Structure formats: C-alpha cells, structure tokens
Amino acid sequence: MLLVNSEFMAAESGPPAAADQAGGCVWMIIWTSAVTLLSGAMLIGALLLARSGGYAAFFGLIAVGLGVAGAGIAAGLAIADRIIRRTRPSWRPVAGLLCLAIGLVLIGPGAAVMLHQAQVAFDTGLPAIAGATLVILALVLSSGAIERRGALILALGWVVLYGAIGYRVWTEMDATVVWMGPGIDDRVQVAFEATRSADYVIRFDAPSCGEGRVIAAGRYEFTPDRGWGKLGKPVWVDLPADVLPLAHGDLVRVCLRDGLASATAAGEFVGGAAGPSSFWPRD
C-alpha cells in the first residue's frame, strides 16, 4: 500500500505537461520569426496591391526569408524537444518532421530558380513557396499548446502574403496599342496586344472606358509573341467607316476585361504616313 501511494505521488509530482513543450528559446524564435515575416508580408502586400516595387520589395523579401528560416529552426528545435521529452508516441512530431524535411528539400532548388542561379526542370518559384509552406506547417504541428499561438500567427501572415500575391496575379493585365492608322492595303486599323486573353471593347473619342462610343467589340486570344516580353501577338481591328477619315487628335481606346482583371490602352491619331509615326500611344 505504501509502495502504491509513493508511486502515485511520484506520478503526480512528475514534470508538468508544459515540460513536453518547446522551451523558452523556441518560444522567442517563433515570435521573432512571426513579427519578421508579418513585417515583410505587409510591406510586400502593400507594394503588390499598389502595383509598384523597388528596394522596399527587396527588403520585404529578406524579412520574409528570415521569418521562414526562423520557422524552420524553431520547428527543428520543437520537434527534437517533443521527441526527447515525450514518453508516449505522438503523431504531431512525426508529421512535423516529415513536413520539415520535404519543405527544406523544396526550398533550396526553388529559391535558386527564383534567384536565377539554377536551371532545373521547373522554372517557377512554386517549389520554394511550397517548401516554405511545409516548413511553417511543420512549426504549427510540432509546437506545444502555448507556442502554437505564435506559430499560427506566423502561418496567418504567410496566408495573407500569398493572398495578396494571388490577388495581384489574378487581376494583373496590361495592354498597349501598337498601330493606329492606314495600313498597307489602305484599310484604317487599330492593333493592340495584351498579357492575357480577355473580352475587348474599342471606343472612339473616349478619355476613359466609361466614355465615348463603342465602335468594335470581340475577344482577344492571347498567343505568345516569339518570347518577347509578356505581351502576346497583336490583334488587328478595322475601324468603321463612320469614324473615317481620322482627324488629328482623334482618340481610340481599347478596354479589356477578364473576370476581375482589366486593362486599357489608347492611341491618339496625329496624322502622317502609315506607320508608328501616325499615332501617339496614350494611357
């Protein structure tokens, strides 16, 4: 009886549940990484949504990279802590270790591709993004209950960052007018090119897409133009007879839309012989 009671008391006085969690060092790394990544995410997100860039984006990428690196270090320490301290099996450190290993394997070549330091089978940054996502997931899986709050905040910052990037990619479109005026067969045409397929409307004497008169409409199908830049091959549209002959200062505007993405480009006729000198491109 005395032996049973002593064993029970020893069990009760054993290490608390918090002993299974990562130590204070891991806690500090997680929160520092979360703050660093969130700072970079807000900076990059603001730049993307404002459709601008520069040195600020470079420093934002550095901040995000440091945040992901900190997440990887914290995940490794947390996994080791949980495996060493736990006396019963748990799927969390095993799953975290698997995610961390796969993530680190993907980040290396993925980052090399993004930095144009390697030529491999893939040519996008998706492997690096997937690797960083797995590293952060490993941190969430392996952290203890207290540290997991910081890990979830870091994961939330990652979701917000790539939500902003996804929105930018989803809504990004550019277009330009490459010809406006008489062609070699005496037809008066406007030619434009864009970065993606979209429905278009051509307006005459239109300072914006909400003004002027619609003179043509159709569908622009994007076709890569011999690998030169992001713009596709131009489409040629005949101008109707009721707007001819073009006078100096006439403005023809192309308005494109595909889902949430939209773009506009215009050309102002300035006269002269057929060719680029017959018009000025306008926004």
Explain the overall architecture.
- The chain has 283 residues and is of the alpha+beta class.
- It folds into 2 domains: 15-171; 175-282, Immunoglobulin-like (Sandwich), CATH 2.60.40.
- It contains 6 helices and 8 strands.
- The strands form 2 sheets. It has a 5-stranded antiparallel β-sheet with strand order 4-3-6-7-8, with no helix packed on it. Strands 1-2-5 form a 3-stranded antiparallel β-sheet, with no helix packed on it.
- Strand 1 and strand 2 form a beta hairpin.
- Helix 2 (24-49) runs antiparallel to helix 3 (55-85), helix 3 (55-85) packs antiparallel against helix 4 (91-114) and helix 5 (126-142) runs antiparallel to helix 6 (147-171).
- The longest helix is centred in the N-terminal third of the chain and has 31 residues, at 55-85.
- The radius of gyration is 29 Å and the shape is elongated.
- The N and C termini lie far apart (90 Å).
- The model is unreliable at 1-22 (pLDDT under 50).
Record keyword descriptors for this entry:
8 strands; 6 helices; 19% strand; disordered N terminus; Immunoglobulin-like; 3-stranded antiparallel beta sheet; 5-stranded antiparallel beta sheet; 47% helix; alpha+beta
- Unreliable stretches (pLDDT < 50, length at least 5) are 1-22
Structural class: alpha+beta
Question: In total, how many domains does the architecture comprise?
Answer: 2
* SSE order, one letter for each helix or strand: HHHHHHEEEEEEEE
Q: What is the gist of this entry?
A:
The protein has 283 residues and is α+β, with helices and mostly antiparallel strands. It is built from 6 helices and 8 strands.
